[in-house]
Design a protein that fits this description.
It contains 15 helices and 11 strands. The protein has 2 domains: 28-264, Up-down Bundle (Growth Hormone, Chain: A), CATH 1.20.1250; 304-529, Vaccinia Virus protein VP39 (Rossmann fold), CATH 3.40.50.150. It is an alpha/beta fold and 548 residues long. The protein has a 7-stranded mixed β-sheet with strand order 7-6-5-8-9-11-10, sandwiched between helices.
């Protein structure tokens, strides 16, 4: 006679099978597929978090190589810690995996907003690694890495929970799904999430997908492994995470506006994210116009005329019928070129059509550049300058290199020996090249490395300095008071430090035949020569030498 089964008290998990496992609500084949699908989605989300941290850190702090190295190395290290920590959760793998995914969704989804907020409201715009944004970056890298590292050991237990198989085969299945998911996440970030949603909303959406994938897998497939209290706790935790991410997404536009005001002031007129960079334009009516590219002050209405005159005018002393401007999509270098009679054609090659469009259509910026894009002599090309120079071109009398600072990793190749070799190919025999090479007061090594690189490419050079305040001191050391004003600033490419310092620019005039030093004012050349540094090696594509 079979005795009736006594009902289980509330909160007690159901009886185990003869193998010590609660039965699954689906067949083993379906369960295995669902686990691998969860691995795929979680891996895609994890890689998006990594790429989002690298991209945001490169934008906020600069030097993408350093930021990528820090984020990735810290995360890989933390993944090892997470794998070891997950050993303690193996007996409760389902509950542990659900908790890990909920935490990862919250931390990873909110990481971009937290970093951006710290950057905007603490005023940490560069400098040493003591900045708060950098500590926060390392902290998020550690936390996300630990949580990602805990996933695979727990998933290994769960997939074996469905059907016992050879450990090597189970690991192969998990890693195959993991790597394919990483591929999809790695491609989705630059081609889908970043251009369509931006960094903040993209990270929040990724967190929501992560929470849904982890919660659905545990509550749907392994719910019988949890007590009733455990199921409700995990459900409430995931709902709270989703609610927080949804609330943040609803407020993200207001957050961005407030953060921009904290960074740029209250007179932000234009803020747009192009495929190449973020463009912000401030002032223009009752305040000087400022143009920021990826958070760096590229054009300041207070001193841009002195900068562009210093860059362009010495190179225009000689034949100048055909002029090439590399960079300079704002049209301000072209404005100075067109002041000289005899100019028949000006070609502007800029990588970002958004800058050109803004310089053409924005009333304040187009007025500042003298409406150069309405001049029929001006032609524009959207292209990477390095790639464009590799094609066949009619020689130019003057080439103006109005490019971002060489200390920025993305610009390093545009200050390489190979790049200047390509420039030399498009120069007429008596042509001149004008190069903005950074600040002599704060970064003399960068400046003289550019000069060494030009000479290595077979070009003669004349250095000169334009600025206010004390000129560079002998031996490459700037004047103390000047250094306190500028910090790491270097003219249009300087980052904000809470105040707007006067301009300090180092330029180089170069040519296939040594340019006449007489075209550069003697005191400007002498001021540059006082800081000369010797024994420097040229910068090449395979050995860049501009890192601060």
């Amino acid at each position: 006679m079979i005795e009736p089964r006594t009902p289980l008290p509330s909160g007690v998990p159901p009886a185990r099978s003869e193998e010590g496992r609660a039965p699954l609500p689906v067949t083993p084949g379906t369960g295995r597929f669902l686990v691998l699908a969860g691995v795929f989605l979680c891996a895609a989300c994890g890689l998006v978090y990594e790429l989002e941290l690298v991209a945001l850190a490169s934008y906020l702090i600069g030097d993408s190589v350093t930021q990528a190295s820090v984020v990735l190395s810290v995360m890989v290290f933390a993944m090892g810690i997470g794998s070891l920590a997950a050993k303690r959760l193996r007996m409760r793998a389902a509950a542990g995996f659900g908790a890990v995914e909920a935490a990862l969704a919250l931390v990873g989804g909110c990481s971009a907003m937290a970093l951006y907020a710290a950057f905007a409201w603490t005023g940490d715009w560069g400098g040493s690694w003591a900045g708060g944004s950098r500590y926060l970056l390392v902290g998020f890298s550690l936390a996300i890495g630990v949580l990602i590292g805990a996933e695979v050991p727990l998933l290994m237990v769960l997939i074996q929970r469905i059907r016992r198989q050879d450990p090597g085969g189970a690991v192969a299945d998990l890693f195959a799904a993991d790597y394919v998911g990483a591929l999809v996440g790695g491609l989705a970030f630059p081609f889908l999430l970043l251009p369509m949603l931006g960094q903040l909303t993209g990270a929040l959406l990724t967190g929501a997908v992560n929470a849904l994938a982890g919660g659905a897998l545990v509550l749907g497939l392994f719910r019988r492994d949890l007590t009733r209290r455990g199921r409700w706790t995990l459900l409430v935790a995931n709902l709270l995470v989703l609610g927080l991410l949804a609330s943040a997404a609803a407020l993200v536009d207001d957050f961005e506006r407030a953060a921009r005001q904290a960074m740029y002031g209250n007179d932000v007129r234009v803020a747009v994210q192009t495929g190449a960079q973020e463009i912000v334009l401030t002032g223009g009516k009752h305040a000087p116009l400022d143009l920021f590219l990826d958070g760096r002050l590229r054009v300041s209405g207070r001193d841009e005329r002195r900068y562009h005159e210093g860059l362009v005018r010495p190179a225009m002393d000689g034949p100048h019928a055909r002029v090439l401007v590399l960079g300079g999509g704002d049209g301000l270098a072209a404005r100075e070129v067109l002041r000289f009679p005899g100019v028949r054609r000006v070609d502007i090659v800029d990588i970002d059509p958004g800058v050109v469009r803004l310089a053409r259509n924005d009333p304040a910026l187009s007025a500042l550049n003298g409406h150069v894009y309405g001049d029929p002599r001006v032609r524009t090309t959207t292209a990477d300058a390095f790639r464009w120079l590799r094609g066949p071109h009619t020689p130019y009398d003057v080439v103006v290199s109005d490019l971002p600072d060489p200390g920025i990793t993305a610009s390093t190749k545009l200050y390489s020996q190979e790049f200047y070799g390509l420039v030399a190919r498009v120069l007429a025999p008596d042509g001149r090249l004008a190069v903005h090479a950074g600040s002599l007061s704060s970064r003399p090594r960068v400046f003289w490395t550019v000069e060494t690189t030009l000479r290595a490419a077979g070009l003669g050079t004349v250095p000169y300095w334009v600025g206010t305040g004390a000129p560079p001191a002998p031996g490459g050391r700037g004047h103390g008071a000047w250094d306190r004003l500028t910090g790491i600033a270097d003219g249009p490419d300087r980052t904000l430090d809470g105040t707007r310092a006067p301009g300090d620019w180092g330029f180089l005039l170069a040519g296939l035949r040594p340019p006449l030093a007489e075209v550069v004012p003697w005191e400007q050349e002498r001021a540059a020569e006082r800081s000369r540094m010797t024994g420097l090696a040229p910068s090449t594509l395979v050995h860049p030498r501009y890192a601060d």
